[in-house]
């Protein structure tokens, strides 16, 4: 069992860890990775600044080409990870060329060029742990499956080359009477998607979700007794609750059809940092009550 | 002619200025005002942080009840206005009680209570001046009318008590071939709505605008020769270009149906600050090219 962010990164770096990071290094902040050609970096920063709920930017390379030094976007946490190598520290990577997936690899040392900039983006593992702690464990966690993720018709605020993107949401079903508590528990997780974006059956239509029974990413959500698929108003008393999802920026990059080499972590194979959830989200020390929250830093 | 932010505030404060501030104190940053009971202030800050394009928060009262001291949210500009009184410095105010408009007044000294918090929100005057300077003056400016504003079906990311809100957009028609330059000129105005949110006739449907010929706020937009109303694909070669609009947070407050007394500036009757556009948006010194841009400060 890998217990710290550093141990997880080193295991990835040396090739001994190749599987998803869910459940590893509990309480250490995990992050999505996206690596872009430097000429698109300013537009991507702007995209994140304009869409902080689905695209919460945590950190980026200190300069084009830099893979061991990060500029943190959390003012209270200038050092998110001391010993880091963005080319090796995720257990698995994906490589895209001119917008198309071309490879899944253990590292991206060969692909990383002098003009690549890495971006770390917040992930929902932090608030899922808090939901579990509040007796509101998401069903996919209980069932050991991936969360269901959907495209919506909700436009992202565009930024330069990044046009035509829409918000991607993750979905966790909850009883109607629990939605208030679910909102309260997740509200303070401002840099990891925060409180839900929408909830209830009407929201499926309002968000323009094509088919709640067929998520575009992840697994279909099972009914509570695992005997069926949670996908309609079926009298179970659960409603879908939607959050902004870290797939959004990757999807926006694909939609923009960027030329050149783009890289990211393989889904579920996150980069784990040194900073801990309760340091970034102080409300975790206060039984879920929201205290000071941390937001976006200036766009550079 | 009132030439500075301070002169404009003092003229409002003493009652000699009672008309809209458009065109006054050129190059000084103008701001929307919203005043809420303190118990709703944390949720409102979160609403702005989660929706920075339509709700760009510039500053807020340093503490509940404070109307002469502001906490700036622009890190590079700790003092947005040195001598300010939020109760008097807009030329005209609106007062709402339990969600309903109850009065339009010259000042809100009588209504301002010990637990009221004022919020200043970015306004589009800054980028309209830049568009004019680039030979792209918005048509409503040329025609001396108010900009057309529309409700959309695009959901705001909710925040605590603020649920059910949608993005409000302003619309300025441009020739298709000019949209690229319009985007480039406005892109750097990150704290005053920035580049367009959407454009083109398809966007009218995608945003869920009910009737482009009937804006919910402001004036209908005239055709270039003023002989008709710009409201359909009429062969003129112009398309609607939409920006996030500062009416959004007021609309969100109304939709939330907050109990108690809420106040704001009367439309067009802004509070003018000491800081100048080219100080906040350094790209204005560089012929419209986007340089460093300033984003949102941490949520307190």
TrEMBL record, chains A, B:
Zinc-finger is among the record's keywords: no
Matching Gene3D superfamilies: PSTPO5379-like, PSTPO5379-like domain
Coiled coil spans: none
Keywords, alphabetical: Lyase
SUPFAM superfamilies in the record: PSTPO5379-like (SSF160920)
Top-rank lineage group of the source organism: Eukaryota
InterPro entries, per database record: D-Glu_cyclase, Putative_hydro-lyase
GO biological process entries: glutamate metabolic process
Any GO MF annotation of the entry: D-glutamate cyclase activity
Family: Belongs to the D-glutamate cyclase family.
Protein name: DUF1445 domain-containing protein
Organism: Lasiosphaeria hispida
């Amino acid at each position: 069992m890998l217990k710290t962010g550093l141990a997880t990164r080193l295991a990835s770096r040396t090739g001994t860890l190749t599987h998803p990071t869910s459940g590893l290094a509990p309480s250490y902040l995990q992050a999505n990775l996206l690596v872009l050609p430097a000429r698109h970096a300013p537009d991507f920063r702007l995209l994140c600044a304009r869409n902080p709920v689905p695209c919460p930017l945590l950190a980026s390379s200190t300069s084009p080409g830099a893979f061991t030094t990060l500029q943190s976007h959390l003012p209270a946490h200038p050092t998110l990870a001391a010993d880091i190598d963005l080319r090796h520290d995720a257990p698995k990577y994906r490589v895209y060329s001119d917008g198309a997936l071309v490879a899944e690899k253990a590292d991206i040392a060969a692909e990383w060029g002098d003009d690549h900039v890495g971006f770390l983006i917040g992930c929902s593992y932090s608030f899922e742990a808090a939901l579990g702690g509040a007796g509101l464990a998401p069903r996919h966690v209980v069932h050991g499956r991936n969360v269901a993720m959907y495209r919506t018709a909700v436009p992202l605020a565009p930024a330069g080359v990044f046009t035509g993107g829409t918000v991607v949401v993750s979905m966790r079903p909850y009883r109607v009477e629990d939605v208030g508590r679910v909102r309260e528990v997740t509200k303070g997780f401002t840099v990891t998607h925060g409180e839900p974006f929408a909830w209830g059956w009407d929201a499926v239509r309002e968000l323009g979700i094509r088919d709640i029974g067929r998520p575009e990413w992840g697994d279909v959500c099972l009914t509570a007794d695992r005997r069926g698929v949670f996908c309609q108003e079926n009298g179970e008393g659960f409603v879908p609750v939607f959050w902004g999802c870290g797939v959004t920026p990757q999807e926006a990059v694909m939609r923009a059809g960027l030329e050149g080499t783009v890289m990211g972590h393989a889904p579920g194979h996150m980069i784990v940092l040194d900073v801990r959830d309760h340091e970034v989200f102080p409300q975790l020390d206060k039984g879920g009550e929201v205290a000071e929250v941390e937001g976006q830093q200036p766009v550079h």
